[in-house]
Specification:
Length: 72
């Protein structure tokens, strides 16, 4: 699993923990749901600034998306 996949998986896990849909998170971030889907699947790079916005929307710290080793 590459870093994009690991980060995307952790974003999805946190989003689901909060009971939030992709559409709801995408709206908070002002990005398209398809773009968020690509990020969660590790198919698209995510910028540092967007990662910070995602963390804020998911009420966590950006570094949580980089925990090592993979816990999920």
């Amino acid at each position: 699993m590459n870093i994009n996949q690991q980060v995307g998986r952790r974003i999805k896990v946190r989003r689901v923990e909060l009971g939030m849909t992709q559409a709801e998170l995408a709206e908070k971030l002002s990005v398209g749901q398809s773009n968020l889907s690509y990020i969660e699947r590790g198919k698209r790079d995510v910028s540092v600034s967007l990662l910070a916005e995602i963390a804020q929307a998911l009420r966590c710290r950006p570094e949580e998306f980089f925990r090592w080793p993979e816990a999920a």
